Amino acid sequence: MAYLAPLYAQPASVEIHGAPLPIRVLAQGPAETTADLQVICLFRSSPVNTLHGSLTETNEKLHGLLDQLRSPELFRGEFGETMLITPPVGSLGAKKLLIIGLGNSQDFSLQKNATGGRDFIRGGERPCGC
Length: 130
Hints:
21% of the residues lie in helices and 27% in strands. The protein is of the alpha/beta class.
């Protein structure tokens, strides 16, 4: 009998040694990732900056919560803006979700990307019990 590969392979995992806190990078879709904290980045909310790929899947698992949050009153996606939410039970594998704003997609740069990484290390500043 031939060996059949599993339909869902285990994610590739890389440990980041020497980091100020334990970090593990996975090559896996965010909607399926089990973690204490998951981080996603969103550009400024506008009709041009729609959700794509894994963000669409994550939004579906959250029953449209990302679409609801992306408003001038809640989360505009301005550069450096952060929001920490607790996903509804059973929606994501992550216990907490940190959303980091990247600002205008036309102005995004590697330098701004590094600042987003610092926001990740600093953590969310606007807790939301959504």
